[in-house]
Each structure stands twice: as C-alpha cells, then as structure tokens.
Write a structure and sequence with these properties.
The complex is a heterodimer. By secondary structure, chain A is mainly β. Helices cover 0% and strands 56% of the residues of chain A. In chain A, strand 9 and strand 10 form a beta hairpin. In chain B, 0% of the residues lie in helices and 49% in strands. The radius of gyration of chain B is 13 Å and the shape is globular. Classes of the chains: A mainly beta, B mainly beta. Chains A and B meet through strand 4, strand 5 and strand 9 of A and strand 10 of B.
Chain lengths: 111, 115
C-alpha cells in the first residue's frame, strides 16, 4: 500500500513568517512530487513540483526533496493571509499512473 | 497544462434519483480520474476512467452505484445513482497526461447535496 503522510494541522503562522509543510511517502520508487493548494470550496491547484533531490525555488515557495529519507517539504516565505488554505502533497510512484495524495495540511496565516 | 471543464458546478437532488456529472478536457489525456471529497477531508479516489473499456474502481466503490463512461480521450462522465444523503459531497474530475513526471489537473468540482 503506497502511502503519503501529512500532518493535518492546522498549522498557524503569523503574517510574514515562514510556513513549513511536510510530507513523507512510503514508496521508494516514487519519481515525482507535487504540492497542490486548495482553498475552501475550490478544487486543488498545482503550485510546485520537484523531481530531484535538493531544493527548488519559485517565488516565495521552495520545495525540498530528500529521497533517501523519503521526505518532501514546502516552505512558504513571507506568508500572507491569502496563503491560508489546505496544502496537498501528491506523489507519482513508479509503475502506477495514479497519483497518491496525502490528507493535506491546513495552513492558517493570521495578520 | 490542461484545462478541465466540469459541470454541473452544483446541484441539489432528491434521494433515489441519479445525477450525471460531465468532464471535458481541452486536450487528449491518458488518464482521467474521479474523486470524492467530503467537507474538510482529503481526496478519495472513486475510479480511473479508461478510454474504451470499463472503469477501474477503488475498494468501496462499485459500478452499479457510480457508472462511469469515457468514450474518448477528452471526455468522461460519472453518474451517482440512486442517491442518498450520504452521497452529498464534492465530486472532482481529474486528468493526467502520460509520463512519469506529469501532474494531475482538476476540474472545478461538483458540489452535490442530496435531500
């Protein structure tokens, strides 16, 4: 059973702080990793993807991947109230076309 | 990226009736999926819609309750049959192009309320 684990939260951070969201996965054959943001009542939207070990930066977002530890994280710098949402981690495992989603972490950025 | 149009966006239905949700992708995609999401919960995969063949259902979901069609590489439907209040949920269509490094895209979702 391929699993993707996330702390459901809520994670509460003050405006301007760094929010750190974490995700672990069970399948060592996993090749690609995605972070989605989902606002309440809306569908998930892709914000970051990462394939290689290390960091990948895109604006205020940084994805970090450590395949040896089977760990992927998302950092949001200078957090804004508009970042308040649920963040879903998704993993594509080798040999399967079905992405595996975590349960999501609720992020609250308070002014 | 792919753009997915899903309709209806919401509906209120009487118990015992059926609702068909449509999903149209603006490009050909290999994989299409149907998810259910209860309020405050994560995504639950209902089935993978296979082009030209029967859908592949996840544990707990059956074809009689959730018949799925996929006549071509850009279109799929999900029917929620003989509805009960427990079927009230958000239903999401998703598509993913072929390849190990491709992401999944989502339709806007259908908010279903069964009364």
């Amino acid at each position: 059973q391929k699993e993707v684990e996330q702390n459901s939260g809520p994670l509460s951070v003050p405006e301007g702080a760094i929010a750190s969201l974490n995700c672990t996965y069970s399948d060592r054959g996993s090749q690609s990793f995605f972070w989605y943001r989902q606002y309440s009542g809306k569908s998930p939207e892709l914000i970051m993807f990462i394939y290689s070990n290390g960091d990948k930066e895109d604006g205020r977002f940084t994805a970090q991947l450590n395949k040896a530890s089977q760990y992927v994280s998302l950092l949001i710098r200078d957090s804004q109230p508009s970042d308040s949402a649920t963040y879903l981690c998704a993993v594509n495992s080798g040999g399967s076309y079905i992405p595996t989603f975590g349960r999501g972490t609720s992020l609250i950025v308070h002014p | 990226s792919a753009v997915i149009s899903q309709k209806p966006s919401r509906d209120i239905c009487q118990r015992g009736t059926s609702l068909t949700i449509q999903c149209q992708v603006d490009s050909q995609v290999t994989m299409m999926f149907w998810y259910r999401q209860q309020p405050g919960q994560s995504l639950t995969l209902i089935a993978t819609a296979n082009q030209g063949s029967e859908a592949t259902y996840e544990s707990g979901f059956v074809i009689d309750k959730f018949p799925i069609s996929r006549p071509n590489l850009t279109f799929s439907t999900l029917t929620v049959s003989n509805m009960s209040p427990e079927d009230s949920s958000i239903y999401l269509c998703s598509a993913r192009p072929a390849g190990e490094y491709t992401e999944a895209f989502f339709g806007q979702g259908t908010r279903l309320t069964v009364v």
